[in-house]
Design goal:
Chain lengths: 356, 282, 299
């Protein structure tokens, strides 16, 4: 299977910098997501790999060979677009067979392969239907089957699920991953949906303004964001502002509290202002009986909002270290109303900071 | 060693990138050039031809001067202008309230209007004039007045004016505007004049320009009804002296160019409607 | 037909509402009366007159002799020539217009090309008629600029070429057929989604293969429909051909029958125009059917 390497890709559209010296290495059989807000360059990067755009400078190597000199139709990659990519005048089967037809494969071979792939995506029954007779989700499955028919060395997906309903999206993304694992095909997946990226990727590249902010496994991205952008973009983060008390002990004063940062690579000198990050699920709440003060190590907070999210309720809190959001099991949150005073506990082992 | 080869590889790659990006297939260029030739060669020939054939001692603009000196030139041009303006006036008075009314009160009639707006294509000028001639011959007082041409041209301009007005009305929220005006106490005629018309200005001007272009260039009916409009004059002069005909041709071209420029400056999608305009009437 | 909303139904007076609604609608219809009256006088009645007149003698008696006259010389030849001319100019304009529209929309082409071609097409289409005839006399006439140029290069196009001949006249018609096709074809080609082309390319197809398997099949109904439109357009033309001196065209024959330059025979003119209407109506029906087919894939 193929490795994909991007070296120093740069692309500017007029005055907008779409790609800023992008470097990325995708290992054989790996599923890497390019995650970021619109305009971050992720789609541009994908289209450059596919051959629909060219960079101003930089290299794209597939299996060690430069592909930028090749036309898009010679690169042997599979691509799934966001929508509308199925040929309207061909049935599902004919769509899937298209790549093989261009390669002059025999009719039997084409039909066999088309059936095989449509079964793989669960649409063997829709072989003779036209795209306009298929739902959005079904169309994307056919598009996936079509791109795999030519046995590409790399699979590229450009926000393939963005145009679909939420439920279909969750279903399909699992299937995409399942198929990818079964075939072991090197895959690059572009999305702006972080839940999607985190749930199905081997590694995630979080992008912003043409650059990769952080490349890592989903767990790494989520638990150890390395820049403020990543921290804010992926999941919800509580931001605590404080001043460093001691670099050696990694102690930061936030409001009246002294917090210790667990990360041994903490490198902000004493006196410097820093931001600390904490996920809502790392904050817990305890009910206080009237008049009680919180136990040592905990502090007071007043409930300002309650947002029911299903299994979890997001509680907005006003505390002496600033506003916080805590994710609490909905069963516990039942007892809360606005203005309730609660005890707040931070899981300080989950405190993150951004390196200098 | 590895570093050196890396640098050496980098340069050819960027060359290839630049070449790949700017590649336009040869065929496309060929078709564009052919089309450009089809459009421009006749115009160039017109200019060349109209400046040719002059005797020694004569100005290269001899034919233009001859034509400008001809009183028939002025009178026919003026006649065409008059007829055009009359056509625009009648068309607008007829069409604007009608299309407005249909949009507001009779939306069910829209398919009928759409169908009617196609009819002038089924009944081209030559056919229409055949049908009208016996009918008009009996109305001698109208038959000899050039105003009859205006009345007929209204029919030719109908599809384009209708389409322009229809599009213009669809773009504004007619019902809301009218109801707002009514709630403020305005009666229908005033609403139409002071509220709707200003919003339709672009559609009206665009449609009117197309109407003028049609009326100024129409030959078939004018010649068969024996009026000396500008195209008829051009034909008469041109068939006897080709050079003058070609000079007049150039003058027409400038006029069309100016009208299209005006239409373009208006900006709205009048461009493609304009193209469809005259072709059917020649 | 949908009932008009007059907005003045009193609530709860269900018994009276229907009558009031139809009455207000009748008043509303009055508003479009001037328009329909005008259309009747200047379009519908003359059309009816000439259809009826095709079956009447000069004295008003019923006859089929006018119709049978159409089949006597020189009219069949005139029809043949008109139809051939229309078909040829539609084909030439249609094919070249398609190729040019496609070229104009190509992504690698300089930005100014599209507005330049669109505006010039708008102008060229309006140049038809008498001025166009003289323009081509100046270009390819016996003393034309291009004719002379070709003679200097050793190529004498006369006498085999003639502006009044089939090819010559079709070439002149190109001047308004080509821009019309370009303008109408551009939105059709834009309707070919970028994703289709890119998918095809991604799957290994060359540009030609894309057109062969996807592009042309999807675009062909529109393409044919527009060519049919061009056909009707050319068939109805009169002034341009008259200026060029073409003699055996249906429209020109009709004109001659009316203005009495050769013979005065309005009855035959009626019959000929009736035949023209029939042909044009067929053209429009075919066009409408093809457009309906086209919209299946392009929306």
């Amino acid at each position: 299977m193929a490795t994909v390497e991007l070296r120093g890709l740069c692309r500017t559209f007029g005055s907008v910098v779409a790609l800023d010296h992008l470097d990325l290495e995708v290992h054989s059989g790996e599923f890497v997501s390019l995650l970021g807000p619109s305009g971050c360059g992720k789609t541009t990067a994908l289209r450059i790999i596919a051959g629909f755009e060219w960079p101003d400078s930089g290299e794209v190597l597939v299996e060690g060979q430069d592909v930028l000199g090749q036309a898009a139709n010679k690169r042997n990659m599979g691509m799934v677009f966001q929508a509308y990519s199925l040929f309207p005048n061909l049935t599902a089967q004919q769509n899937v067979e298209f790549g093989l037809r261009v390669r002059k494969e025999s009719r039997e071979k084409r039909a066999r392969r088309a059936r095989e792939l449509l079964e793989l995506v669960g649409l063997a029954s829709a072989m003779d239907r036209y795209p306009r007779q298929l739902s959005g989700g079904q169309q994307q499955r056919v598009a996936l089957a079509r791109s795999l028919a030519i046995e590409p060395r790399v699979l590229l997906l450009d926000e393939p699920l963005s145009a679909l309903d939420a439920k279909v999206r969750v279903q399909l993304r699992a299937e995409v991953r399942r198929i990818q694992l079964e075939l072991g095909i090197t895959t690059l997946y572009v999305t702006h949906d972080q839940e999607e990226a985190l749930s199905i990727s081997d590694r995630v590249a979080v992008m912003s303004q043409g650059r990769i902010e952080q490349l890592g496994t989903p767990a790494q991205i989520y638990r150890s964001p390395r820049t403020a952008f990543v921290a804010n973009f992926v999941g919800t983060m509580n931001k605590l502002e404080g001043t460093v008390v001691s670099l050696e002990d990694r102690v930061v004063r936030c409001g009246p509290l002294l917090l210790q940062v667990p990360d041994p690579t903490f490198n902000h000198p004493a006196g410097e202002k820093v931001e600390l990050f904490l996920r809502p699920e790392d904050i817990s709440i305890g009910l206080l009986s009237n008049g009680d003060k919180p136990a040592p190590g905990l502090f007071e907070g007043r409930v300002t909002s309650l947002t029911f999210l299903g299994p979890v309720t997001r509680v907005g809190l006003e505390t002496e270290i600033g506003p916080l959001m805590a994710d609490v099991s909905s069963a516990v949150a039942l007892g809360l109303t606005a203005d309730t005073v609660v005890a707040v506990k931070l899981d300080s082992t989950s405190l993150r900071s951004i390196a200098r | 060693m590895a570093q050196v080869t890396a640098v050496a590889e980098a340069r050819p790659s960027s060359h290839r990138i630049r070449r790949a990006r700017n590649r336009v297939p040869v065929w496309h260029v060929i078709w564009l050039v052919i089309a450009a030739l089809v459009f421009l060669v006749p115009i160039y020939s017109v200019v060349q031809f109209s400046l040719a054939g002059v005797g020694p001692g004569q100005s290269p603009f001899h034919w233009y001067l001859t034509v400008f000196d001809d009183p028939m030139f002025r009178s026919s041009f003026w006649l065409s202008i008059q007829i055009s303006l009359e056509t625009v006036a009648v068309s607008l008075v007829l069409m604007v309230p009608t299309v407005f009314w249909v949009h507001l009160r009779l939306p069910g009639l829209r398919p009928v209007m759409d169908l009617i707006s196609i009819l002038p294509f089924v009944v081209p000028p030559i056919v229409l004039v055949v049908g009208l001639l016996p009918f008009l011959k009996n109305i001698t007082w109208l038959f000899v007045r050039p105003e009859v041409l205006s009345l007929i041209y209204v029919v030719f301009a109908l599809p384009f004016l209708y389409r322009a007005l229809d599009a213009g009305l669809r773009a504004i929220d007619l019902r809301t505007l009218v109801e707002a005006a009514e709630s403020l106490g305005a009666k229908m005629p005033r609403t139409l004049l002071q509220v709707i018309l200003p919003n339709l200005r672009a559609a009206i001007i665009g449609g009117s320009l197309l109407t003028v272009a049609i009326a100024m260039g129409e030959y078939t009916v004018a010649s068969l009804l024996e009026f000396s409009t500008f195209p008829v004059y051009t034909y008469t002069i041109g068939t006897s002296t080709a050079y003058e005909g070609v000079a007049l041709s150039f003058i027409s071209f400038i006029f069309v160019w100016a009208a299209m420029l005006a239409l373009y400056l208006l900006g709205r999608g009048g461009r493609s409607a304009a193209a469809v305009a005259i072709t059917n009437y020649n | 037909m949908a009932l008009a909303e007059s907005g003045m139904q009193p609530v709860g007076l269900a018994g009276r509402a229907p009558r009031k609604r139809s009455r207000s609608r009748r008043w509303a219809l009055l508003g479009v009366l001037p328009f329909f009256a005008y259309i009747s006088i200047f379009l519908l009645i003359p059309t009816g007159e000439l259809i009826a007149g095709a079956f009447r003698t000069a004295n008003g008696a019923f006859t089929l002799s006018n119709i049978s006259d159409i089949f006597r010389a020189p009219y069949p030849q005139a029809f043949e020539f008109s139809l051939e001319l229309s078909a040829l100019s539609a084909l030439m304009g249609g094919v070249l217009g398609f190729l040019v529209a496609n070229a104009v929309l190509h992504h690698g082409v300089p930005r100014f090309i599209r507005p330049a071609f669109v505006s010039f097409s708008g102008m060229a289409a309006n140049f038809a008629g008498v001025p166009l005839g003289f323009a081509y006399i100046a270009t390819l006439g016996t003393l034309g600029v291009v004719t002379t140029l070709l003679q200097h290069l050793g190529l004498d196009i006369y006498p085999s070429f003639s502006l009044q001949g089939l090819f010559g006249c079709a070439l002149v018609y190109m001047y308004f057929q080509l821009p019309l096709m370009i303008l109408l074809m551009i939105p059709v080609i834009e309707g070919l989604r970028k994703e289709w082309r890119e998918s095809a390319s991604n799957l290994g197809a060359s540009s030609l293969e894309f057109w062969r398997y996807i592009g042309l099949p999807v675009v062909t109904p529109s393409l044919l429909g527009l060519m049919v439109l061009l056909f009707g357009n050319a068939f109805s033309a009169y002034a341009t051909a008259e200026t060029l001196g073409v003699s055996n065209l249906v429209t020109i024959d009709i004109a001659n029958l009316i203005n009495g330059d050769i013979t005065l025979d309005p009855q035959d003119a009626y019959a000929l125009t009736l035949a023209m209407i029939v042909i044009i109506v067929i053209t429009i029906i075919v066009y409408a059917l093809l457009q309906r087919r086209a919209s299946r894939w392009l929306r």
